[in-house]
Specification:
Radius of gyration: 26 Å
Largest sheet: 22 strands, antiparallel, barrel
Helix content: under 10%
Number of strands: 45
Distance between the termini: 59 Å
Structural class: mainly beta
Oligomer: single chain
Shape: globular
Length: 749
Amino acid sequence: MGQAQSLGTLRGTVADSLSGQPLVGVSVGLQGQPGGTATDALGTFRLAGLAPGSYTVRVGALGYRGKAQAAMVAAGETRTVSFAIAASALNLSEVTVSQPRDPNQSLAAINQIDKVLRPVNSAQDLLRLVPGLFIAQHAGGGKAEQIFLRGFDVDHGTDFAVSVDGLPVNMVSHAHGQGYADFHFVIPETVEQLKVYKGPYTARFGDFATAGAGEFSTKTRLDASQVKLEVGRFDTRRALVMLDLLGNNNRHLFSKKSESAYVAAEYNFTNSYFDQKQDFRRFNGLAKYTGQLSDRTALTVLGSHFTSSWDASGQIPESAVREGVISRFGSIDPSEGGNTDRTNASVVLTTGLPGDAVIRQQLYYSRYNFNLFSNFTFFLNDEENGDEINQTDDRNIYGYTGTYDRDDRLGSRTLHTTFGLGTRIDNTDLTLRRAVRRTITDTITAGRVQERNFNAYLDETLALTNRLTLNAAVRADVFVFDFNGNYTDEDGARQPIDGRKTRARVSPKLNLYYQVSPTVQLFARSGFGFHSNDARGVVRGTVNDNALPRAIGYEAGSTFKPMPGMVVNAALWALHLQDELVYVGDEAIVESAGRTRRYGADLSVRYQLTRFLFADVDLNYNHGRLVGVAEGQNFIPLAPHFTSVGGLTLKNPRGFSASVRYRHLDSRAANEDNSIRARGYFLLDGVLSYTQPRFQIGATAENLLNVDWNEAQFANPSRLRGQTAPVEEQLHFTPGTPFFVKVNASVFF
């Protein structure tokens, strides 16, 4: 007891020097000593168990100038220090490889660098910030992209969880695909931070987080108001307005402490490069308030609205192009397309409690509509009218998430505890109907889904030694699947469905981190995860035993700095799925592909060559196979084998900046026996800009070499109108962007 009473404590806060807003996740440490901590959700930190003496406290965050301050701690004393740090140009020598507040975010250094360096011109580019993630669009610009990551064809989000400001993007039991993640409601210029978690190792994520999860956060404040105009090939036009409502004039809304509020809106239009004009239109609007109500209370209020409509060319068969029936940019069914909209509201209250605890509570609501016309097989089933289908989704989402964080002492060691509690309720009306040139002719299935998820998790991070950290967690999820509706059976008779099924899943996690030196961290991670099945399939019992198919993953690797200006992340990983579920959109059913296993290696390198010149590369090898299937018949369709992205970036805060980047996705099996191959590609893109305090002008070029490449690809049978040749399975594709250039101009005020 006497020894404990002789130890002291350092408390402190870290804020942005310009806005006064508290900064979250800033690294805090004592000079010359291992370990450390990071600021919490209120920008505060605590270093306990300090022997009496003089210390130098250092704080640092990427994009901010590091700062140090001397502090004298007496026996039994609690000394308070405060820091206000200023934004600065990117300097990789200041990047730290450890994440004391969130150790499972081993890609944090890479993500922070990429957000500063990699050009972002669209919502799609935001997803590409995830190392190793590729996307493909195959039904017009308004539909969610197909995602590829860690050997997965994730479809539209079945195995990768996405959130924005705590709002879930993935849709359960969606009309078009399980886990459907339409990210287009995000304005790219408003995004401030991305956190990437590969694999099922983090208890905060439940459904869909098998291959990983991506958390996007929008800005808490604007550096300046902005008006931006873009014009490009194929009748492409875009306008953006971002307005700072409070500025730096000490105006306030709810308190006399630090506050910020802004609105942003964008409008997009393009006819795209297809023979049939796409007539794509999208509007996004966002309003956000962030403020300190008191020293220990923060409030965030957000509202957004998104609407989009488009005509789509859809995927086309290779044979039709080869035989001259249509051009490479032609269409078989020109009536494909759709419209969608989403409205979001969110309130987050963060409160500091006695005992250095912080509780964060979020309530959110989303109103969502989706209406899609598509045709995968053309005239295969109906040689006269065609096989066009219409999928609709009319949905309300209600949710709550709460977390309780605190630090405790176990002897001389620090134990960080996080307890999370949440619920999500989806009420949606779903239909799948047959159509002819967007005229509804028949209903295949229709009904109402109510799907509820209740979850809780306990996450413990213990510093076993000054270098070794243990993270252990367990998560519990309960799902209630309700469906009331009908479907058409194989004989064409209408069959009613009305049922409820309840399923649960417990997912333990265990992770170890070893800090070899300030520049080298080793990690070994393992965990169970899952993704939910479509409620219609669960209630009907078609794949009832697979309501929540389990995944288990494990990996080992390191984040290290072989030299001050270089950051490297490397990992060897494996992932096993109890069942690979494939959503069949034109029948509204889920098919089971059985067990799968994947393993691979990821390598990411970021290197600062000079003060303003940076190089980066991601190399991702993946090997996946169906389990229990004969060799040669066990390929996982469309699973990537090797992917790579990289480039050179000249980043000058004032003056000229430029970037040349490549994307490579290799050829891979498009069906189980590898008899049909999806074609790989190598693309070069470029960005050029000139920036001054009051304006910016720039240009973006995609596919600089103007190569013919396939974006989305599928192996399936189809029939053209009047076709007499035998129907065979073949490759269908959506052509990728040809050479495309757009210019932009921005004014800041």
